[in-house]
TrEMBL record:
GO terms for molecular function: kinase activity. It catalyses: ATP + protein L-histidine = ADP + protein N-phospho-L-histidine. Pfam families: HATPase_c, HisKA. This is histidine kinase. The lineage of its organism: Bacteria, Bacillati, Actinomycetota, Actinomycetes, Kitasatosporales.
Length: 423
């Protein structure tokens, strides 16, 4: 229904693309961070353990020299007795009778201290740790750089993959919009089958959309052909019946027959008009018209009571005959399924029709007029073909039609005529 169908916008595809890309980037960063921490811990523990092992070996050698009475060799070559620069925690540990190894500072340089009790004294030595610390820092830098490079590569790959997915979804959404607007020949061009087709969700959506469009197109074309054939076949016998009815003598029977034949003739003409509108072959003959006077003449031609209020007149470029048909159908529908008084308000290129009946049913407001749906006129349920023709002619002229109910009661139909000629 014109004016009520919400157009899908492709902005969601960009959001989807960036959501997928950011998700992949976040997962890649998390994996790289976890792996980096694990590698850092393993390599650091391995490297530090190597330095500790070296420090313990030197400490064992110094203790052996000290136990053999080579105190001078122990203190001069491999260790020191009661080293004053030994870290206090390690000194307390040795005084308690244990040996230990720890990283500390010596002359503002990192070293690996090793100490053990030796004959009531503390034998201590150190191994340079600066090269090890520099090596660990270089290793951390390399791990961080590799993690950033890997995460960046995965983010780029994720952006590319997400872009492909979003583009395919955007193309499918564009085809869905074309089908919604009436182009049943639109197709995504995605063929069913192929390697991995059963696992490609986007392809499955495209194939399902193409299948739906094809099935819908076939059904609508079948309905159009049926409507046109029925109307065409009824026209010939109806013409003969009208001619035969003219030969009947004057009286009530003749009036009743002519009335029913007239209704049947109107229905046949409406069906033919709908079939032409459905076929999409109708072309408007545009001309500049004064809207206020056109509405007055169209309402007067119906022979029904209808008030016309011109708040602001306007000149529009439209097809006079088709606009007359729209106005007449709305006025007739208001009298047939609504209640008087019926009024038309002209405010520039906007026409506002209103009656004082029970109003439009909710399904008409939500879904638009459906052909051949009729019901209790007293409850406003009848629709027939009049509103269907209104929608078809409005589509040809590019008029936006909105159905609603007035807050104070009654059905309301608003026409927004284009201010520029429809291309």
């Amino acid at each position: 229904m014109s004016g009520r169908l919400e157009r899908l916008r492709p902005s969601w595809t960009y959001s989807l693309r960036w959501k997928i890309a950011l998700t992949i980037a976040a997962v890649s960063c998390a994996v790289a961070a976890i792996l980096g921490v694990l590698v850092h811990n393993v390599l650091t523990r391995q490297r530090v353990e190597e330095v500790r092992k070296e420090a313990r070996q030197r400490l064992d050698s110094a203790l052996k020299d000290f136990s053999y009475g080579m105190q001078g060799a122990a203190t001069g070559r491999t260790g020191q007795i009661d080293e004053p620069r030994l870290p206090e925690p390690l000194r307390e540990l040795v005084k308690a009778g244990d040996r230990g190894v720890m990283v500390g500072d010596l002359d503002n340089k990192p070293v690996m201290w090793a100490a053990a009790p030796a004959g009531g004294h503390v034998l201590a030595l150190y191994v340079p740790y600066e090269d090890t610390r520099d090596h660990l820092r270089q290793m951390d830098t390399a791990i961080l750089g590799s993690a950033v490079l890997a995460a960046g590569s995965m983010a780029l790959a994720g952006t590319y993959i997400a872009g492909r997915i979003s583009r395919r979804l955007a193309a499918t959404a564009a085809v869905a919009r074309q089908i919604t607007e009436g182009d049943l020949h639109a197709r995504t061009g995605i063929a069913a089958g192929g390697k991995g087709a059963e696992h490609d969700a986007v392809k499955a959506v495209g194939v399902a959309l193409d299948s739906m469009a094809q099935s819908l197109q076939q059904r609508l074309e079948s309905e159009k052909r049926f409507t046109a054939d029925v109307a065409h076949e009824l026209r010939t016998p109806l013409t003969g019946m009208l001619a035969a009815a003219g030969l009947l003598p004057e009286g009530r029977p003749r009036e009743m027959i002519n009335d029913r034949l007239g209704a049947l003739h109107t229905l046949t003409e409406d069906l033919l008009e709908i079939s032409r509108l459905d076929a999409g072959v109708e072309k408007p003959e545009l001309a500049e018209v004064e809207l206020g006077s056109l509405v007055h003449r169209a309402v007067l031609a119906t022979g029904l009571a209808c008030e016309v209020h011109v708040v602001r007149d306007a000149h529009v470029r439209t097809d006079r005959r088709r606009l007359d048909r729209i106005i007449a159908n709305l006025v007739v529908n208001a009298h047939r399924h609504g209640a008087p008084p019926v009024s038309v308000r002209v405010d520039g290129p906007v026409l506002d029709f209103r009656d004082h009946g029970p109003g439009y049913p909710a399904e008409l407001i939500d879904d638009g007029p459906q052909r051949f749906r009729t019901g209790d006129p007293g409850r406003g349920k009848g629709q027939g073909l009049g509103l269907t023709i209104v929608m078809g002619q409005a589509h040809v002229l590019g008029i936006d039609v909105q159905f609603s109910n007035h807050p104070q009661g009654g059905a309301r139909t608003t026409l927004h005529l284009p201010t520029k000629p429809r291309p």
